[in-house]
Fold:
Amino acid sequence: MQATESRHESKTRILQAALTVIRTKGYTATRIEDICAEAGLTKGSFFHHFNTKEELAIAAADYWSEITSDLFAAAPYQLPADPLQRLLAYVDFRKSLLQGELPEFTCLVGTMTQEVYDTHPDIREACEQSISGHAATLVPDIQAAIRQRGINSNWTAESLALFTQATIQGAFILAKAKNGVSVAADCIDHLYRYIELLFNQPSSSNEPTTKRETR
Structure:
């Protein structure tokens, strides 16, 4: 039993190290040695759990989905009774996560997708499942907001959910390009305003909007 727990702990340390190193250096530049150094483990420990760096990357994408799902499930944006306010609070929550250095708030699966979408299809598929899976969690609130406000349009809840992720991932790219967080915060503010306009909710009549902090 003790050996099993030890193996589980070392695997988790490797996965956590992968999140840090890949978000910092990118998938291609990351070496197994870098992962081991960050985890404080030997290459023997790495190969006990993973046969290749690609296998680790797929597992890391799944691990990323697991820990972020827990984070979002417990987040305060789930609390408002109104579905549109939950959606807007989600956008605010994403902005609140723009803390620390770039690798600390940027997305593991978005980072890997940009590099490997054509060269490592299995990693791309794992990343796609992570991004689309998270977007799907927004669909029920969007659908409820559409029904509640009588929206009649040719766009779907699914397409808007994916658009939120496209905007946020693009914000991360710009933050990397400009080496700063402010442009990402501005992009997420625009996403907030776009959703308000889409549901015909002017900022002047939306109480939560007046309480938002602009970085």
